[in-house]
Design brief:
159 residues, alpha+beta, OB fold (Dihydrolipoamide Acetyltransferase, E2P), two-stranded parallel sheet
Length: 159
Amino acid sequence: MLRVIGLLLALAGMLAATQVFNWSLEETLGFTEAVLIVRVESFIEFPGDYTDRIEYYFKVLDVISGPDSLDGEFLATYEMLYPRLFYDDEGNEVWESPIVSGSGYEMLTREGDTVIVLLDRLPDDQQQYAGVKRVEPLESLDSIQTLLYPEQEELIQIW
């Protein structure tokens, strides 16, 4: 019986180590530099073993939060991390469980879509990529505005 309990505890530990920890929209907003409404001009996915990287080319349609200087078009990148197994220097098996700020909508976005993008790094010029923290559909606008501006009684009707 003790052997079965030990096996179950080991299995539970392994399963817990291979999960992905997702941030909520509210948690993610706390780590953003800007929130924009953009049109996706291009979308290129680079799949990997433990991470998928996406490169976007965005056209800014509106600034919800962040510097007013954000306009025009810019390049951005998002990385989706997956659980992975590696071995430390002593040969011990180690599982890494990533913390993911994305909504999952990052992988569903395609060219021509209009979305809300949360940036954690702003572009300096056309050569530097902005960092995408999360992508949300336009239907999330009211929720985002409520979280950003809780004291405001009426939401700004941008879109």
